[in-house]
Amino acid sequence: MAGMEVSEHLAALRRDGDLLVAAAQQAELTSPVPSCPSWQVRDLLRHIGYVHRWAAGYVAQQRKERMPDRPNETELLAGGAQDADLVDWYRAGHAALVATLTGADPDLVCYYFLDAPSPRAFWARRQAHETAIHRVDAELAAGEAPTPVDAQFGADGVDELIMGFFGRDAAQLTDAQSTGRRRTLQVVAADTGGAWHVELTEDGQLATAVQRGTAAADCTLTGPAAGLYLLLWNRAGPAAAGVAVSGDPGALAAWQEGMRVTWE
Predict the structure, then answer these.
(1) 225 contacts: CB under 8 Å, gap ≥ 6
(2) pTM beyond 0.90
(3) Which domain holds residue 224?
(4) pLDDT digits over 187-212, tens only?
(5) Same domain, yes or no, for 10 and 136?
(6) What CATH number corresponds to the domain at position 202?
(7) Which of 144, 160, 170, 227 could form a Cys-Cys staple with 139, CB 3.0–4.6 A?
(8) Sheet of strand 244-247, all strands in order from the earlier edge strand to the far edge
(9) Are 186 and 119 found together in one domain?
């Protein structure tokens, strides 16, 4: 993890959850979410409202195994509150998650799925970034420029995405998936000094190796950590994110086309 405390992740979770609902209220529930093309704002609220409750359940119940029979995305978006009650339903789930994580024992033992100092630290970090990225979605749906995150939080989010999600996936590749032509990305946060190197399959569907630091790469992305955060989560293009692209732009295009973190 990139040096943030649980208390800082909780403060971000609280802030971005409030900003998300403010933006959702400014938009219509039927407004499209440009960064999630198949969604309307109502779908965004149902998704994040469910995820908040799902995460809080592991912590509050101290569940040590992954919950069975998790709904797929279609089932998830069909659930939740009716439109008239959707904002209040979202608010209640967000408040419960913040309260649950704030009051959780630092030595809590429960299920978690990415490397972290503790389960509580994992869930605070994961839900802070889950909420921040979907807050951006709500702001884009409302026609607003995304509220900036600070450099430390942006670098932490890049680190979670590359070393957490894609580091985990790379470690689980089969021998067949580990062969073939590669594209490589070097990511450099000019304001924090953070650097990450990612090796992708040619189509960008899989990360085959990740590391912190620098190495030779087909394409280098250099910019502020907050901009890299939005770019790598496919919430802004390089120009809007203030990120310079050098080398082969096809490597970035492969990332943008192929890399996804999905519920399923």
Answers:
(1) 151, 152, 154, 155, 158, 189, 191, 192, 194
(2) yes
(3) 151-258
(4) 999 999 999 999 999 888 889 999 99
(5) yes
(6) 3.30.1050.10
(7) 144
(8) 207-212, 195-201, 182-189, 219-223, 244-247
(9) no
